[in-house]
Design goal:
- It is a single chain.
- This protein is α+β, with helices and mostly antiparallel strands and 409 residues long.
- The chain has 2 domains: 182 residues, no CATH class; 125 residues, Sandwich (Immunoglobulin-like).
- It is 28% helix and 21% strand.
Length: 409
């Protein structure tokens, strides 16, 4: 390590080694946005360096809570989003078992700042980790705060963001900011939400392919990623974990059709992806349980059909068991013939239950079979991760249709 005017410098070529499979930005073109993104998402991101002489301690800070002093609304929105939890227990227990190279594959998107990687390296005892405490502008918990404000908006202590949509206060704080239309372009999100062509695949399919799905959808001509996931520039980043977003993505119809035979009927459910600009769900982690059944309102039920919407991949990420994701504009049709009940009060019911972290649940449970060879700290984090993953399950939709009574011959 060497010092340059008080900078927090380390052996970055070793510390921040990246693997190609971790994902890259889309191929550069000649337009201004691609050129900006190539600079903004340089791999690895360089350290911020010495704050400008005129900066206050608050202005120089990389802590999200310090950004909240002026950007309270955005901070509160971010704090409730998944971006603020990208360094939760689910990845922390895995980092404890990873080499430096493996860990940096994940940190590229989960905690991309150079200062965050340095803090992780210190905790892990990786080669090239800093020997001194971080400077004042780097809070000790910065690495645990996930995809922070600075990860997208600060480079070399210079602020970046979309063009202003309202008058700015005077004087503009921290020396103003660099405006770029890239912040409202889907390619900005593709930095993390699209693996390169040579990235990791299962059954020939990229493990992270959301941007390409969007490009192939009708939405590419009219909506950006930000239009749905950051409406009105809100820092919400909501997706399949959110019931409202699920309902916006889907159009669901349930009907009872005659079966052509007395006392029989056909249940027909049509689930259409009319609102998501990519597959529903987009990648392998979430699963949607589709349940079609008869209910009598008194606790009685008769199962009719069950489907899973999702991409089933084993925990080793080597084998695909199914892929029933619904592409943008596509639909899933579930039909099942059944016998009507002899008594009144029965209804046809369709339920959609969401397990946003189903793949992780299976992975965590499989890993818990090896607790005898894991450190107590790792086991604790693993159990916490499983508990948190299971707690995200929710019922997104319940629709019913009236059923006639079976008429005896």
């Amino acid at each position: 390590m060497h010092s340059r005017g008080g900078l927090w410098y380390w052996a970055w070529p070793v510390l921040l080694l990246m693997l190609t499979a971790c994902g890259e930005q889309p191929s550069a073109t000649t337009d201004g946005i691609e050129a900006f993104l190539a600079r903004h998402w340089t791999e690895p991101l360089p350290p911020q360096g010495t704050p400008p002489a005129g900066f206050t301690e608050l202005e120089a800070s990389l802590a999200p809570q310090d950004c909240a002093q002026c950007h309270q609304v955005q901070w509160e929105q971010w704090r409730g989003s998944l971006h603020s939890h990208t360094m939760g227990a689910g990845i922390q227990w895995q980092l404890r078992l990873m080499s430096q190279e493996q860990g940096n594959k994940c940190l590229r998107c989960h905690a991309p700042l150079a200062e965050q990687k340095a803090l992780v390296a210190m905790r892990q005892g990786w080669p090239g980790a800093p020997k001194k405490a971080p400077p004042a502008y780097v809070p000790a918990d910065l690495a645990d705060q996930g995809l922070t404000c600075a990860a997208c908006h600060v480079r070399g202590h210079q602020r970046f963001g979309p063009p202003a949509n309202k008058p700015l206060m005077e004087p503009v704080p921290h020396g103003g900011f660099v405006a770029s239309a890239a912040f409202e372009d889907s390619r900005f999100c593709a930095t993390c939400h699209q693996f390169p062509p040579d990235g990791p695949r299962v059954n020939g399919k990229l493990q992270e392919d959301t941007y390409a799905q969007w490009q192939a959808s009708p939405y590419a001509e009219k909506e950006s990623c930000q239009s749905c996931h950051m409406p009105g520039r809100q820092h919400l980043f909501r997706g399949v974990h959110d019931r409202e977003m699920v309902l916006k993505a889907l159009d669901v119809k349930l009907e009872v059709l005659p079966a052509g035979q007395a006392g029989e009927a056909i249940a027909r459910a049509v689930i259409s992806n009319t609102g998501a600009g990519h597959h529903f769900p987009t990648y392998m982690v979430p699963k949607v349980d589709v349940i079609l059944q008869m209910v009598d309102g008194k606790g009685g039920h008769r199962p009719l059909a069950r489907r899973v919407i999702g991409w089933g991949v084993n925990v080793a990420l080597t084998t695909e068991s199914y892929d029933t994701r619904i592409p943008a504009g596509g639909q899933l049709v579930v039909e099942q013939s059944f016998s009507l009940a002899d008594t009144p009060g029965w209804q046809l019911e369709l339920r959609l239950n969401i397990a946003p972290r189903e793949h992780y649940e299976r992975m965590f449970k499989d890993s818990l079979r090896h607790v005898d060879v894991l450190e107590p700290e790792v086991v604790g984090l693993l159990r916490q991760a499983l508990k948190e993953a299971e707690a995200t399950r929710f019922e997104a939709l319940r629709v019913t249709a009236e059923l006639p009574v079976r008429i005896a011959n």
